[in-house]
Amino acid sequence: MLMRTDPFRELDRLTQQVFGGQGTWSRPTAMPMDAYRSGDEFVVAFDLPGVSADAIELDVERNVLTVKAERRPRADKRDVEMQVAERPLGVYSRQLFLGDTLDTEGITADYDAGVLTLRIPVLEKAKPRKISITNTGGAQEVKQIDA
Questions:
Q1: For a tag site, which of 3, 4, 43, 133 has the least CB within 10 Å?
Q2: Which of 56, 32, 37 is nearest to 110 (CA)?
Q3: Which residues form the SHSP domain (predicted)?
Q4: What is the spatial distance between Cα 34 and Cα 9, in angstroms, rounded to a whole number?
């Protein structure tokens, strides 16, 4: 009901393992996420450590949700000689293809402690409902015939 995700994500992960992490040609690793249904909404949580809230963009076009975030270099790098630089910088983006049963107009977003949490309501028409059964043919009788 919720989504398909970036088809090249797994290929990128394998390529980075084979060729030893971040090369100059590779894009930054995709942002990890959890997605689950909680009652009448889907919740999607993205890990974005070190990203400020103003460096996150959310866009929805039709049923495609795009999350873009940028981890910027520290501002106080003027007099710094870097010894180890393992934390990737740059722009991260991820697209989710939302099902037709989700309300893209009602998406809410919250960012706290490096975790972006999106709440996507399920449309009323997609919620489980009970269907009543009426008996229009009347009661049926079962007769026993003696032989």
A1: 133
A2: 56
A3: 24-136
A4: 15
